[in-house]
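Rotation project, supervised by the postdoc (A.L.). Task for the rotation student: set up a whole-complex structure prediction and record inputs and outputs verbatim in this book. Inputs entered:
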Amino acid sequence: MVQTSAYDWWQRPDLCYQGRQLLFNGRSVENLASELGTPGFVYSAGRVRDNLYRLRQALETAGLGDRSSVLYAMKANRYAPLLTLLKQTGLCGIDACSPREVEHAVSCGFDASDISFTATSLSPQDYAILARYDGLFMTCDTLHAIQSWGQLKPGTAIGIRVNPAIGIGRVGNDKLQYAGCGTTKFGIYREQFQEALEIASQYDLTISKIHFHTGCGYLTPQLEQLDRVIEQCQWFINTAGSVTRVNIGGGLGVPHLVDDQPLDLQQWTAVLNKHFASNDLHLEVEPGDYLVKDAGLLLVSKTYVETKRDTRFVGVNAGFNIAPEPAHYGLPFQPVPLHWDSGSPMTPVTVVGNINEALDVWYENALLPDLADHDYLALINAGAYSASMASNHCMRGEFKEMLLP
Amino acid sequence: MVQTSAYDWWQRPDLCYQGRQLLFNGRSVENLASELGTPGFVYSAGRVRDNLYRLRQALETAGLGDRSSVLYAMKANRYAPLLTLLKQTGLCGIDACSPREVEHAVSCGFDASDISFTATSLSPQDYAILARYDGLFMTCDTLHAIQSWGQLKPGTAIGIRVNPAIGIGRVGNDKLQYAGCGTTKFGIYREQFQEALEIASQYDLTISKIHFHTGCGYLTPQLEQLDRVIEQCQWFINTAGSVTRVNIGGGLGVPHLVDDQPLDLQQWTAVLNKHFASNDLHLEVEPGDYLVKDAGLLLVSKTYVETKRDTRFVGVNAGFNIAPEPAHYGLPFQPVPLHWDSGSPMTPVTVVGNINEALDVWYENALLPDLADHDYLALINAGAYSASMASNHCMRGEFKEMLLP
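Outputs recorded:
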């Protein structure tokens, strides 16, 4: 494995340079780009499984193995082969947030009873479709939702999404905070919780689950805040009285920038055990990013290299519309060359896409070697919230997808 | 026409309350919502034509009628019936930015010779497709593009997109500025212009057009800046020597907020005449927003009304994924009721969508009447950069579209 200060933070045994070639899951990425065509998303089944096993193992090690579930947040990436792969592991269920997601998960092999459903602003048509799926577990995030579901499914067990009024998320990224100082649309606050219980009671609904999700992309430094969030949620668990499961949402992050450190899962389970070791509540966690983000590369073709004034631009044949996170959420995807000689001189370049918009910039001041004999680049960490959020803006929406077994 | 301080800024003869009903292009919007289903985009052919006629008329009145062209920026809205409608007026061509856009425009009735093509980061495959269209006019935005096109089409006329190094756009919205202090990927700067002319000369290309586009959504207060931008571009026109056409880009805005005033077209043409009255250059303008933004409504169904702590939320059955401007570009769509009694008490509500993301908010503190007997809302100014940028995020990407004749 070649290591340099510019490229060592993201290399790992299944994604690294060997000799000159970048290998991913044992395959030459240059060959993949050439075979698949670009733009193309390549997902590694091995990495997805590793991420899932690591998470399960951390829960096992912390003594939570038998009383915890992992639910994949399929909104992160709904590529059908990936969903079937996850079902085949037998180690995770699904977090779905729309009727079409439920239909799609079932079409990929999941049972309705594998699916935990948590959404917002459902229509009567949505409720009618969802009610068809026996075993689907519904979490309600408004008083209105409790009433709507109660009318269709009286006497059943439901979850309530609560809003602890404090948020958590990647520092400096308020777009990814779901609860906090301002009042958000998500979940039921303390002030309305008693009324929620009364409405549930009217329809003989049992509140068996409390759900909260308060931000995305947290790493180890944010675990103190997760601790405070769970602390706030204890009140809801105690007040409901009938709770057997707690869903702590998703939001487990992966390193995005050179200074990021991976989430310390031992510290993460320590926070869970602090709150849940002494009771027998079943814990659910809903990762999206954590399972698939670093298991995906976006392969693009170089279109030009040209200096304009003080900036050296590298153009590629894909724009932010097929992977909106870098442009819209301030989470750039590091571009990396598909072959590389250790010790090559590196220069800062700005990698830009093919959309006529000022924000269509993949990465500013990326360190790259001379690209004269390069046809392609790979953008790392493109496995989540990329293809699943793609648009056909400027009619530039075409791309390939591929799962490496 | 019912007028109140909350609702008077956006009402106009073809979009206003008559009696209790909101009418659009002479049709009851409530009936439209009921017939079409929601979420649905409804576009008014009449309003699009009015916008186009107004722009043409302003150019005529300023003595620029015979020496100006309007090119519709189809990236704003590529709904096929709308493109055919625009072709049928005989009053505009097309600004296209990708090979698929060219194919689509031609499939809707435009000739290749109606199309001005200006894009960025084109691939060899892109150039090969574009070269098939006889009459398509290519504007190049890099030295590399001049070379690539020159190899395919030596001896032809081209445009050069230049970067005047100053920008223009809606105040406070740097996402919509395309040129300015920082170096952007767009166009060729002064520093590289001589080299651009030399490369063109190698391929016997004639530079017959100078193109610039430096921002979006400008209104009357920004015309001083447009003046300065054109001033900067004179150098390129003079230096090229062979220019017969000048394309001043798009960016003409429409009012979005209660305090916005419509762009004063007489002042706009005065800026053009200041620079171009004394020569015989043909002028091109590429509006997108100006032609279609206020000609479109997004019709949504109310899903719930509920107070959480200090905020009254109105949920609807559509999220930011089908119309990203409000969430991602800070340009909220005013929600309006489909029926309304003048003098009804109004209260501030926050209108939110059905996507599990914190930024999925349509409008904060919108003044709306009691919605107990309302099934729907309309979001105004949804005719541009909405459906054309829609994604299937959370598998909530389904919507209807309709052109009112």
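Student's summary: The domain at 46-292 of chain B is CATH 3.20.20.10 (TIM Barrel).
Supervisor addendum: The radius of gyration of chain B is 22 Å.
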